[in-house]
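Protein modeling request. Please complete all fields; requests missing the sequence field cannot be processed.
Requester role: graduate student
Desired output: 3D structure, token encoding
Chains: 1
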Amino acid sequence: MKIFTIEENDANSRLDKFLKKLFPNASISLIYKLNRKDKIKVKFEWSEGKFKRRDNEYKTQIWDEIKIFLSDEEFDTLSKNIKEENKSSMVAWEKLSSKDIVFEDADLLVINKNSWINVHPWDHKTTETNIIYQVQDYLWDKLNSLTFKPSLAHRIDRDTSGILMIAKKKEMLVRLVADFKDHKKIKKTYFAVVVWKLWRKKWTIKANLLRIENAKDENKVQVNENWLSAVTHYKLLKEHIMQTKEWVLILSEIEVQIETGRMHQIRVHMTSIWNPIVWDKAYWDKKVNSFLRNNYWLTRQALHAWKIEFFHYGRDKVMELEARLKDDLIEFLEKLK
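Delivered output (337 residues):
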């Protein structure tokens, strides 16, 4: 027999859904059976200090106590989770570095993501580290929730570095996800280096985008006036002129703000005006990429999620955060000088 106390992250959840998260290896029919046979009882505020059987639809409340009448062996079998099995293996993976933590409090963890790291373990068929496992490893002993895992409030591309927000509390996750979908409540600013001279130093690109699922011989995202609207604002910061035996190449540093959050939006929009992101494998010239790799040691797209402005519900105020450029981009820009 075990007794669990419901805390903030586990509150306001249906009893059956709470039990399903607590027992990932149990079928929903087994959970209903356990409850039907009085293996699950709840002590709540108006239960006069007694544990009573509750319907599966019962919404858990803070400080509720859940008593589960199972043997230790039964409990371990039903609750065994892949996260537990991966804890030891995460030691061998790249851990989250303290220098990559932009901000942290009881509600949020904001990190400066490295490039070439997946945000989810299922993004690519690989055994490489990923942000979810890094965060779970970092927060392993800091969260007291039985069923809630720290979760991404948004995403950025595998090859893009910069700000990534992780919610530590369920309520914060729900609110931030809604704000990101709203697009008007969160201001995202990116830093990028693009190819060629910009025809205007400041401009707004409005071009609808089509996402093609399972794309093979074509780009995954394309400009298509009949699909989803997308708005991108850019501002020129600095220009660099590179001269070789074969060509003269102009590279432009820009600040980018997006009103919408379409997949590959900045990359496709900048390509649509003939100023693609430097080293963009999908939307730019492989020959120039090879030149930059061999001469300037750059091996990924020059795109960085630089700044973010958002409303922090836990602190009841607007916050602005900035993630410093990664070392490879800093070195690349130094070489351009």
